[in-house]
Design goal:
elongated; alpha+beta; 9 helices; about 15% strand; Alpha-Beta Plaits; about 325 residues; 10 strands; 3 domains; about 50% helix
């Protein structure tokens, strides 16, 4: 049996190299088969490999350009906020651009890897077909395995798709403090399938992306330190607001906070009329993640300032009425 016998008489294919050798060697089947196996088929395989390499290189460039174009919005996040009247420090625009470039690089790398695997898988199947291997059982087996895997990996596919859109939409990034519902903490790692958070107590949470119903990001562009302070009902509210603002301003001017504060502190006024006192609210816009440290420092300094100025911070109080004897008048104790 000649090598060409496996290929069902390759010289019968009009226009093939095997047919050319067969017709020019006096219909020599052996030479035609050898030419097919050792010349034509290696050339076809080399051509497939070359096409796959070119497609790989082009896919890298194409995916990177497409992702960068998709990730480049018509307006930046800071421009959108300024359009609706929210002032944004100019120093935040370069940070947002750098974050966008980092996301584009991560997404393009992931999509490029997927494209490369797909290209070389097709190239391998084509090479096997050129080598004369029957691909029908292989394709049938792969189809059955794909169906079984599809039923068993529905949640995995859901997680991966959700992770892709999280990256595309920049819902959060590594280093952000986020609230994902059951888990809250600092993002340590993001993959297509899961997000890894470290809670304030050191607990590491592995959250599948497909189960995340909402995302609260506390670290994008800026954060706001919110401080609520209670004063007694008989306090001078104007003086209490002045002291609260002064105490917060003194804390914001400290060297450890000055560079992280975006705007001067603002006393919003009376937030609530509680059972034991009147609640005053103060806010300060700061760098992401700095709000908690600043809030603690402001509360401590406000306590010292109010004590020095004689402003009472109320504690729970109750009025008790006691009956001396049946029918007697009630009196306050």
């Amino acid at each position: 049996m000649t090598p060409a016998a496996v290929d069902d008489a390759c010289w019968e294919r009009t226009g093939s190299f095997c047919e050319f050798v067969y017709s020019n060697t006096g219909e020599n089947e052996t030479l035609a088969g050898l030419a097919e196996w050792f010349v034509a088929q290696p050339l076809k395989i080399l051509l497939v490999v070359a096409i796959a390499m070119i497609a790989t290189r082009l896919s890298r460039r194409w995916v990177r350009r497409v992702v960068q174009r998709v990730m480049r919005p018509h307006m930046s996040p800071t421009q959108r906020l300024e359009r609706i009247g929210i002032s944004v420090p100019s120093v935040l625009e370069p940070e947002a651009s750098a974050r966008r470039e980092a996301r584009a690089s991560s997404i393009s790398t992931m999509l490029t890897s997927t494209m490369i695997v797909l290209i070389w898988t097709i190239a391998l199947l084509t090479i096997l077909g050129i080598a004369g291997i029957d691909l029908r059982p292989l394709i049938a087996g792969a189809g059955i395995a794909g169906v079984a895997l599809g039923f068993g990996a529905q949640s995995l596919v859901k997680d991966c798709i959700a992770g892709l859109f999280m990256l595309l939409e920049d819902q959060y990034g590594i280093g952000d403090v986020v609230d994902l519902g059951e888990a809250t903490g600092v993002v340590e790692d993001i993959t297509l399938r899961t997000t890894v958070l470290r809670g304030i107590d050191g607990t590491v949470w592995h959250v599948p992306n497909g189960v995340v119903q909402r995302v609260g990001n506390k670290s994008q562009l800026w954060s706001v330190a919110v401080v609520d302070v209670d004063v007694a009902y008989d306090s001078d509210l104007a003086r209490a607001r002045e002291l609260l603002h002064r105490a917060a301003q003194e804390v914001c001017e400290r060297p450890e906070f000055e560079a992280r504060v975006h705007e001067p502190p603002m006393v919003l006024g009376v937030e609530a009329l509680a059972a034991d006192g009147i609640t005053l609210r103060l806010t300060v816009r700061v760098d992401p993640g700095s709000q908690w440290e600043l809030q603690r420092a402001i509360r401590e300094h406000v306590k010292q300032t109010f004590d020095d100025e004689g402003v009472e911070i109320p504690f729970p109080q109750r009025t008790i009425w006691m009956r001396v004897e049946p029918g007697a008048a009630e009196h306050e104790q």
